[in-house]
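Practice problem: predict the structure.
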Amino acid sequence: MYAVVTLQDSDEVMVVPSNWVSLDKRHCYWPPFKSTEKCMEAVQHKPNPETEGKPWEKLHIIFLGEYDTFEKAKEGQKEIKEYEELSNPLKNVLPGIKRQRLDSTQEMSNNQLQPLPPVTPASTSRMSADDKVEILQMMRDVKSKVQQNSTLLKKILKDNTVSEAPRSTCVPSKNIKLPLRTFEDVARTEMELKNTTTRKKYVKYLSKLGGFISKDVIKNIMQQVLTDDLAMQFNWQGRGDKKAFSKLILTDVIRDAALARNVNMGHCETEIKKYLSYAACRMKLREKGGPGHAIPNVISTSMMDNQPEREIPLNIFV
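Answer:
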């Protein structure tokens, strides 16, 4: 087993063997190798945290998830990094705190600001009349291009018949009580959705939440349907100690709403599975301080998902 963790000192997202992670999942041991290649080799071979008596570094971590194989863990690491880059653009500009800090005096000496060379402003008095005419013409050309692009953009927006209502402006009617927060809310909604008129209202509302590709459509819908706290209590088939999301009438409503946005049943189910499986990671990143609800969808591979499927009674929420 492999884990994906964030090193708190350096803010790096790393893949590490599960046997390097402490039982409370707050610390991780790191080998004392100077070579990156040796460290990566150690990660793949998963040795115990001891090397010829040399002490391993004990790092503070945020545990993000666990995977069956190294390859799946690398995929999870990639998805999390992409999400963090999108949600925190300053991270690409301002480097994180390095694990091995430089001595303060050395750092000061290495980072002395050098004075900028003096810049002599261009003298406009030396510009000929022809130069001025040429510059004015160039400015007119630029202005003309901007106007053409603006007109073209307006035409594209006008021709785009897909209604993209932002989530903040999509307010459910008083008869639609979302998001669901508890199993009691789920049971109540399941009863309400047995009414054809109510079901159509839910489909109409959820289908207007926006999104062009299937991933975004389902993410927008699922964010409105249930909280991450409740999503953690579900998986698709009801394996382990979780409830079966596939058995709900609400799931059929989501399928219908997605179909209205040209997302077929197969893609819809795949994205729902991803969204549910990554609920715990979204919660972890929210605790870390990021907007957890915007996590990209990744299917986690927990041991529970490998257990045989058990029957879930259809009246579980009645």
